[in-house]
Amino acid sequence: MDxxxxxSGFAVGFLVGLTGVGGGSLMxxxxxxxFGFKPAVAVGTDLLFAAITKTGGVFVHHGKHGSVDWKIVxxxxxxxxxxxxxxxxxxxxxxxSGKETTGAITFSLGIALLLTACSIxxxxxxxxxxxxxxxxxxxxxxxxxxxxxxxFHGPATILTGAxxxxxxxxxxxxxxxxxxxxxxxxYPRMTTLKIVGxxxxxxxxxxxxxxxxHLGLGNVDLVLLGSLLIGSLPGIWIGSHLSAKVPEKxxxxxxASILLLIGLKFVLQ
Length: 269
Known about the structure:
This protein has 269 residues and is mainly α. The chain has helices at 2-19, 24-33, 39-65, 70-96, 102-133, 153-171, 177-186, 192-216, 222-242, 248-268. It has one domain. The protein contains ten helices and no strands.
């Protein structure tokens, strides 16, 4: 069975490398529907999986490309980390009270998948609008110049982080796809490379805090986590190298349609 987990990790890693879509939106439904894990265990394991796999990407973005806006990361974290901790506290209180949390996690997972599917479809639209505005090089300007709400960009970014904190902690979905689209909306003149790097850097502390919280709640399968990691790393490497050869206009709508169907299944359960 461990080999099946490893192969699943490879498949998800390959799709992440190929499409750039976050692994949570693919991995968590796979663990629930294919392997029969409880939603809470699938979410908790995937959160730690995401924290580990995303770390390498940030080293590349920060060290090689210099494409992380740490001030925006700080603003997002100012909202996401406290709200992630609050969500974990509520989950622990419900567990201690003997109340079932599976329904809430399943419903949140469905909503997050539906939002992710929509974000995949509108991402290209936001990118085209950014191109018309003329993306600026943030190495020569601060984030306020790139913001949509220049007078409220701080509070708006913190609020975005808070929403992501709750959603990611409950579902493990959203740190990648939803975070990227939110930043594209808030900072339309920001370069795509910097948006991706900034979102990735914010996802690490968020998924780490949420993942460790779920570990404390007993919602992490460490054997499963190790098996997934072994398969995902070569999968991401191969998928990334093949991504330029696969037409995005074909792949993204198919992926969005699959996530819409899975999301509806979770919501309607």
